[in-house]
């Protein structure tokens, strides 16, 4: 019975995906400024990064997303010692809902692969929203987005006694979206 239910759900999802009447693909490139919150603000003042996002429309108001990027957080001094900057490559999958044609609400989850001496992997979750602005081309748009992002199960710096259960920040992006 479990096998039949799984097959049914797979076929239902496939039919929705392949029969979507508004199937459209968008690719977005965006630089980011990230402002640490909570415990993260005690070790970092600001972060910079960039991302590439692919979006496939499932229907007029729904889309799935795949996002990859790079983030660098400049750390502060703690007890006279400068902590190592925090670098990570987050990779996320998500779901978008469009209440109106140029405004969206989004949720994403995935993994952040940390770089440097403290390499490890963290679970990432990220809710956000954004809007599009039309450009001269009908398929291409400017995008402004705002999101909250948290990387769980992290601690930073071998010389630091700071152990956090999450590293969180508010991300601001202004990017360019290519409609395909």
Q: How is the quaternary structure best described? A: single chain
Low-pLDDT windows of residues: none
**What's the end-to-end separation, in Å?**
41 Å
Number of helices: 1
CATH topology: Porin
CATH class: Mainly Beta
Cα gyration radius (Å): 19 Å
Shape: elongated
Mean pLDDT rating: 84
Strand order of the largest sheet: 1-2-3-6-7-8-9-10
Task: Provide keyphrases for this structure.
single chain; mainly beta; eight-stranded antiparallel beta barrel; 1 helix; 9% helix; 67% strand
Task: Please give a quick description of this structure.
The protein is mostly beta strands.
Walkthrough of the structure:
- Residues 1-22 form the signal peptide.
- Keywords: Signal.
- This is Outer membrane protein beta-barrel domain-containing protein.
- This protein has one helix at 2-18; strands spanning 25-37, 44-59, 62-75, 77-78, 81-82, 86-100, 103-115, 121-134, 141-155, 163-179.
- The protein is mainly beta and 180 residues long.
- The mean pLDDT is 84.
- Helix content is 9%, strand content 67%.
- The chain has one domain (22-179): Porin (Beta Barrel).
- It starts with a helix and ends with a strand.
